[in-house]
Amino acid sequence: MEKFQVGVIGGTGMVGQRFITLLEDHPWFELKLIAASPRSAGKPYREAVEGRWAMAKPIPAKAAGMIVMDAEGDAEKIAGQVDFVFSAVDMKKEEIQALEERYARLECPVVSNNSAHRWTPDVPMVIPEINPEHIQVIGAQRKRLGVRRGLIATKSNCSIQSYVPALHPLRSAFGLKRVLACTYQAISGAGKTFETWPEMVDNLIPYIAGEEEKSEQEPMKIWGRVEDGVIVRAEAPAITSQCFRVPVSDGHTAAVFVDFEKKPSMEEIKAIWASYRSRAQELGLPSAAKQLFHYFEEPDRPQARLDRGLEGGMAISIGRLRPDTQYDYKFACLSHNTLRGAAGGSVELAELLCAEGYITKA
Length: 362
What we know:
Layout lengths: L3 E6 L4 H10 L5 E8 L8 H4 L12 H4 L4 E2 L4 H5 L4 E4 L5 H13 L4 E3 L25 H8 L6 E3 L9 H11 L1 E10 L25 H12 L2 E3 L2 E3 L5 E8 L6 E9 L5 H10 L3 H5 L9 E4 L7 H4 L2 H4 L2 E8 L5 E7 L3 H17 L7
Parallel strand pairs: 1-2, 1-4, 2-3, 4-5, 5-6, 7-10, 12-13
Antiparallel strand pairs: 7-11, 8-9, 11-14, 13-14
């Protein structure tokens, strides 16, 4: 198979770095170029990230010597050299929207890790194991943009990746009335390490700007439907959340409380998690977990250090399912926030778009 040629715009930040490590040995995708801000443009990549490389593994040799391009100034040149780009730029929302739409109008598909276009009605926000059918809206988006190949597709916020996938098959089987989700989010979600954010050692911050709104609202789009060229949000369940920053390097944990329309047994819930398969597994997407949900019977699991790396960081760990005094049940979930929740989820989305024919060779 001839590999898709891929660019990473915003390649010097933490998520951009993760993209570059994930592309090193990808069976479908080959890193063609890296772009970032004007201050990094013109430098070899190793020099552009010197002193701020945050990944555990070293900079891939091929990427290290690449000359960084200007994500804005070189947009036309970049669009002409790749089959699609991953977007992880750090800019104001309106600037990101304009830049990603510019690439799409240049007939360059954009798979975005950013939140800027998540609420654009004809931009799909996709978790491949939950709502792959939402990519159908791309036809209407292309008509609006006046393009043939260009598109924008985005992944959801990292905070909902821990618990929304676990709720999804239960919603389909039993209906959800209300959900309370408290998330305990790693510092890498802020693009930080303990070296760059020593204030987080021995600390907890009960506030993350914008996270609670995203946690409560983004599932409504994920669970929505494509209708008349836009995605119409779901109206239920009612979700309320609190989001805390905790002194963990990687891995977002959620404490979930849920009421059902039709209350299942604990055995039924566990059986659904164990047997769940989705379009991602049917297509054999390279980044998709073979077994999406891993349930732990031990009372002290899942734990971030032990379980965040399951199936290359793309699986979801669940534990402590039990009855609650105010809700039907409660349980704990864990996902790797920079793999499943960020770059890995975007790579899997790009795989879905390629497998379903929405991204083709330029």
